[in-house]
Amino acid sequence: MALLTGQSLPRPTILIATLLLGLVSYGVSLVLDMRALRLLGAAREAGFFSIAPFVGAIAAVPILGEQWEINMLMHEPPALRRDAKATRAGLASCTHRVRSDRGSS
Predict the structure, then answer these.
(1) Are the CB atoms for 93 and 47 separated by under 8 Å?
(2) Of 8, 17, 25, 36, which alpha carbon lies 20 to 30 A from 43's?
(3) Mean pLDDT estimate for the chain
(4) pLDDT tens digit sequence for 2-24
């Protein structure tokens, strides 16, 4: 990207560190995903895996010190509100199924 936009490349140490961070974090993500697939089953694992970006975005607010208010959601496009509702419904369904499975054993 840097070469395409006419910028200079980062130092080799930064480039290598960035690639290693991506490799390790993606590898850990896949290992944990496969473990969840075995423990929870395909449907529940997919439900949890699909909400990961939303959890990351919400966690990033306090980590990065951003200001976030519920009013921001009210001014977003309807499709985003629909997706947020679907995500809440999926999360509620996943947690309900996990709780009911724990109670039956």
Answers:
(1) yes
(2) 25
(3) 78
(4) 788 888 888 999 999 999 999 99
Q: Which residues of 38-77 are buried (b: 16+ CB within 10 A; e: fewer)?
A: eebeeebbebbeeeeeeeeeeeeeeeeeeeeeeeeeeeee
CA distance 30 to 34: 6
Q: Could you give the CA distance from residue 1 to residue 79 in angstroms, rounded to a whole number?
A: 31
Q: Which residues contact 37 (CB under 8 A, 6 or more apart)?
A: 45
State the DSSP string of the chain.
-TTTTTPPPPPHHHHHHHHHHHHHHHHHHHHHHHHHHHHH-HHHHHHHHHHHHHHHHHHHHHHHT----THHHHTS-HHHHHHHHHHHHHHHHHHHHHHHHHHH-
